[in-house]
Structures are given as C-alpha cells and as structure tokens.
Records
---
Amino acid sequence: MSDTTLATPTGAGSGAPEFFVTPGYGANLLAGLRYSQAVRIGDRVETSGQGGWDPEWAPGGGPAFPEALEEEIVRAFDNVALTLAEAGATWRDVVAVNSYHVPSAADTIGEEHNRVMVEQFRLRMGDRAPIWTQTGVPVLGAPGMRVEIRVTAVVGHDG
C-alpha cells in the first residue's frame, strides 16, 4: 500500500473500496475538507472532481488557478491523470466524464471550454470516446475555479 492509499476495512476482499489521496493537493484537501481523490473497487475507479489547481494547492491558500482558461482546463486534465495513476488507472481507461463549468457566456458554457475539453480528450484517450455530461454551474468549490472534472475508469479493458 502506498503512502497515498488509505487502508481498506479489516478483512476486506478484493471488492472492498480502496481510497486514494493524490500527493500534494490531495493530502491538503483530505486534511482540510476530509475527502479522498479516488476510490477503487475491483477494476472500477471513480475520482472526485479535479480542478485546474496548482499541484501543491491547499484550501484557503493563495492563488491556485491560472489566469488563462485553457491552462486551467489542461491542468485539471493533468490532475485527473495524477489521481487516476494513484489508483492504477490512466486516461485510456476512462469510460465516463462529468465536467462542470462556470460559463463564459449567459446562454452557453462557451466555445473555449468545449474546444479545450475535446482537444484533451483526443490527446489523452486516442480513439476512445467516453460518455460525457457537461454542466454549466454558477460557482465551483474554490474561489476563481472555472472547471472541475470527475471520471469513471475501468482498468484493464481495451476499448
């Protein structure tokens, strides 16, 4: 078990939940807000929402998000990759994505959000096209945060 893996219950079998904490921001969020970054049950991995924050960011700390929206989205994808890796998965294992966006226009999430999300899907997942639900929201969990991405992955299956 790595330093970033939280113990499973005593007597747990291979189907028991195993929780993971991403080094840096994940440990800070566990300490400050009491949640893990991922859970693995068998070959299925679920992540909590990952923002485009600095890898060492802590709640209540200084500026966490880049000024450029594109950089924030790319960093959120990077943070998903870090979190998946802790649980033994990659973007190539992802089958479902939920993304939450603070819209850049009154009537749409915005072209830049969509463009960067799709570019990152193609870069990180190749030909795999996961199911994707994209939701516009008025605010996210931290000041200045404009995007949050959570995923479901199934490890070890080609698709």
---
Amino acid sequence: MSAEVQAFIQGFPIAAISGGAALALLILGAMIYVVLTPHKELKLLMAGNSSAGLALAGAMIGLALPLAAALRSSLGLVELLLWGAVTVLVQLLCFRVVDVLLKDLRKRIVEDQAGAAILLVGVNIAVALIVAAAVSDPNLSIG
C-alpha cells in the first residue's frame, strides 16, 4: 500500500470527526442565533422577506469563517468547541451592536429594509474575519 493511501486511511477519521464537529457547531450556532434574535428569520424568509435571508446568511458566514480557522489551527476537539462557543457569542454581540446603532434592527428586518440587513452582514463578516485571523495565528501574542 502506498504512503499516500496509508496517510489517508490514518487521517480520514480525524478529518471526519473534526469536520463533523465544525459542521455541528455551525448548525448549532445558527440555531442558537435564530432562537435568540428577536425576529423569526425562518418565518420571515418563508414569507419572502429578503432582509431576513440576508441577515441569516451573514450570521452563517460569520459563524463559518472563525470555525474554519479554528478547525485549521486547533490542537484538538475541545479547543474547536471553545472557539465555536466564542464565535456564537461574537455573532450575537454583532447583532446587538448593529441593533443599537440602527435603533430597532428587528423592526427594520421585519419591514424588509435591505440596507439594515446589508449593514448587519457587513459587520458579521468583518468581525468574523478578525476573529478568524486571531484564532488561526499560532504565533499571535500580546506583550
């Protein structure tokens, strides 16, 4: 058996477990986000509300970027799970900050005001990129 095949056989279970854990964290994070945000994204989305779809897509991307970075750089499953929890909290904080800035983000999304949703997506992605960079740099130190 070739070295490549042996490496695949040895590495596949680890990749499957880690990848599965990251996907589970993404799904769980999205579910928590949907439950804790004051508007009902899925109901609004099914009714044709584009802003709800944009907001939820931004949250999903905002969750996925740091999770992908954590998956790449984590030393184990526990570290990946910890970063997953941080990611969910950061995305909820993003929603709250934009809500304060725009004065009633929930109402704006319910009224399908795309501008508000686009700003939320931008904040989600910008913050996610910063978190992802912080998570993925093993040489990052302060001091």
---
Amino acid sequence: MAETLLLIFIAGKIGNIAQDKGRSRVGYGLLTALLWFVGEIGLGVVGYNIGGDFLSAVPFGIAGAAIGAIVSYLIVSNLSETEEHKVKYTSRYSGGYAASPAPEKKPAIDERTEDEKEEDDFAASVGLSALQDDDE
C-alpha cells in the first residue's frame, strides 16, 4: 500500500516536471510507473535467483523500483522544452522565461461631444459642478 502511494506521488512529481517543459504529464507519469515495475520485477527475479527464496528478492525488488524511478527522473530532467512552450512563456521584455506582462489598458473613449466638453471645462473653471442639470 505504501509502495503504491509512493509510486503515485513520484509519478505525479515527474509528470509535473514534464508538463513544465511542455511535454505530456500523463505519458511521463506512465513511463515512471513502467520503469518502476520493470526494475522491481527484474531485480526481484535476480534477488530470488541469488538467494533462493522470496525473502532475498524483496530488497532487490525495492532497489529495482528505486532505480526505475531514478532513471525516469533523469530522462525527464534532461528533456528540452518544446518550441511551442518556449514561445508561449518567453517574455519579450526580459528575454527570459516568464509569463508575459498584462497588456496596457487603453484609456476609455470619451464619447462626449465637443460642446459638452467645453461646457464641462467652463463649469470647472468657474467652480460649478459639471453634474448639475440644465433643466433646473
């Protein structure tokens, strides 16, 4: 049970590393599980042949699982980033890898007519509020 939880944890971490490089998270998580089980069974069989009983196969199996996880980590850590991932996360301002800055906000378009703008400017110059109604 603990071995299965450890495998899920390690496969998730290696999948996250692959995803950060623009690769398939699930694919490299499955690669981790495959190498884990191949290493565990392969070295478990070697341990059984050396010791002659199942008790001697256990430490070899655990070592094989650890070797499989390490090999999977080395494969993923040596992957290069995909070109799409580089383009998506390259900042044109810093030259490095970062999320692009937020676009600059454009000023709101002033939809008032020229007469309304002149009235507001005059009202402001004489100290009147531009919000007063002309109907009063």
---
Amino acid sequence: MKTKFTYPAIFTKEESGYFVDFPDIKPCYTEGHSLEEATIMAKDVLESCIEYILKQGEPLPTPTDIGSLSGDRVMLIVADIENIKSQTRYVKKTLSIPYWLNAAAEKEHINFSRVLQEALRERLAVSSNSVVAENTTAYSYSDF
C-alpha cells in the first residue's frame, strides 16, 4: 500500500503568522506563527486528513497541479502516513495554572499543548520525532 502522498498547500500570510489550506482536501487546514512552524503543521494535518479519508474507505482526491494555484505562497507537502502509525496517540490532560498566568498566555495566543509538549520534551531530553507528533493545533477531518 502506498504510504506517501503529495498535495499542494496554499500558505496565506496573516497578522499572526501563516494560514495553510489544502484546496484538494476539505476541510484540511492549519496555521503557524512562522513559515517554518506552518510547514511542520501542514505536514501533520495533511497526514491526519489522509489517514481519516483512508479509514473511511473513501478515495483520495487527485492533487491539483501546483501551477494552477495562486496565493501568497504555494508549496507541495509530502505526507507519510507510515509516520502516523509510529507516533503515540494524543491523550487529553487536565491541569491547573494560576488565573493570571492563563490570562497572560491567552493574551499572547500561547498554544498550551505545544508549550507543555516542549517543556516535557526538554525535561525528558527527548526529540519531537522520537515520542510525539509536532503539531497539536492542526484541524483535521476528525475535528468536524
């Protein structure tokens, strides 16, 4: 079975970073504060969307030719669904933090899941590739 799929993504510059949309797979989009972060998140959400479509037994859409798309930046993203199978599934954690800290973090649009993952990786001295997927804020088919 084929495990690598390539789809074009449209990156749109916004005030807070980049919005990423896959025109061939709806709804399949994400965002990132920087172009690098948005690219990492795009790969992750594309893998999740493809995995969902395949689990539903639906055919994958034919990728649009990148030359026919326009946007701030159009890039091809390669999804390797074999990567998904090797990653740990996500678990929901409930935690408590001081009110003032929560308010300050929300004001700065801090991604709590990402910060917790980064802190745990640093504390445990593990890389993002060895334990968990890089992106916890991507939206995918399973969110709808």
